[in-house]
Amino acid sequence: MAGGFFAVQRYPVRTSHRANLQPAALERILGAHFEGVGANGEDRTATWGAISHLAVRAEGKDLQVDVTMNPKVPDEVARETIARYNRFLEEVTGYTAKERAKRLRKQAGAAEE
């Protein structure tokens, strides 16, 4: 996308947090961290700060996230956006940023074999 950074990522969700994958739960959690919460089919969407578009949905037992970031925001807005995004992911998945990074590195290593 012109003028932004776009990424699609899948995050595993702890068994104890799988109820958060329900559309109503995703909307509620998005609303706690972001603005402009809405629905587009199965996707639940939001915006805030450096996030010009965020769409999340259940993908089996995982959370799929499509995010478009605007790199042309002030540093303070970028930092707050990242903090909110990480809090949102932790609330939905049950994994901290450190735990998510470790799991993603492990998945990437397994994919290379």
Protein described:
Strands 1-5-4-3-2 form a five-stranded antiparallel sheet. The longest helix is centred in the last third of the chain and has 19 residues, at 75-93. The protein has helices at 23-33, 75-93, 97-112, and strands spanning 5-12, 35-40, 43-48, 51-59, 62-69. Helix 1 (23-33) runs antiparallel to helix 2 (75-93). Helix content is 41%, strand content 33%. The termini are far apart. It has three helices and five strands, in the order E-H-E-E-E-E-H-H. It is α+β, with helices and mostly antiparallel strands and 113 residues long. The chain is globular, with a radius of gyration of 14 Å. The protein has one domain (5-107): TATA-Binding Protein. Strand 2 and strand 3 (43-48) form a beta hairpin.
Q: Mean of the pLDDT scores?
A: 91
Q: Give the DSSP E fraction (strand runs of 2 or more residues).
A: 25-35%
Query: Under CATH, the topology is which?
Result: TATA-Binding Protein
Sheet with the most strands: spatial strand order:
1-5-4-3-2
For the record, the CATH class is Alpha Beta
Gross geometry: globular
Total individual domains:
1
Percent of residues in helices comes to 40-55%
Q: Main sheet?
A: 5 strands, antiparallel
Order of helices and strands: EHEEEEHH
Q: Measured on Cα atoms, how large is the radius of gyration? A: 14 Å
Quick structural overview:
The chain has 113 residues and is an alpha+beta fold.
Task: Name its key features.
TATA-Binding Protein; alpha+beta; 5 strands; 113 residues; globular; five-stranded antiparallel sheet; 41% helix; 3 helices
